[in-house]
Amino acid sequence: MKAIISIIISLLSCLSLSAQSVTEYFNVGNPINYCGTEYSLVWSAHPQENYFIQEYLPKGETLEHYNQMFTVSIIFWDRTPLEAVQAKIAELEERKKTDPITNYMAAENNGEYILEFLVGDSSNGKMNIVEVDVHYYRQMTINGKKASVLCFYSGRAYGDDILPFIKSIPEKRSAWYEGMSNLKIIPKFPKK
Description:
Elements: H1 2-20, E1 32-34, E2 37-48, E3 51-57, E4 68-76, H2 81-95, E5 103-109, E6 112-123, E7 126-142, E8 145-158, H3 162-183
Antiparallel strand pairs: 1-2, 2-3, 3-4, 4-8, 5-6, 6-7, 7-8
């Protein structure tokens, strides 16, 4: 019996260690400091040959239930930031049909775009989650290839915290925008 328990403990330890390892496909700094908060790499994916995504959380937060998250995604293609913003706006317009809280606004500066939007999730007539996202779209050349780089901040509130969260958005907006435009993240991929 002790041998079986030892084997189970060893297997669980291995699973725990493998679940904690995250592939850093590109370097943008780790942690990322955004608006005075440090975000450390917790999850990454490379779902298509030309697409990479990395998510960062503050200490103590989890992907399953976070209040703040920072994400960097890179797609190697010729699409402009404006085209990416227009595609996201089309997605948000579609979402408005089922999510009455959905709202957005966009701003442009020298070919770079910030898109801020609010979305929610409700059940039984009660709002469960509200999320504000601040997307920052830029076009760059990385290792000689054109790429769209999207940096975004996501803030969430749950249950009773939703109304104060929504009321706080206008006072945080200028810091979010300034923080994005001052980050100047330049992704670096390892040389092959």
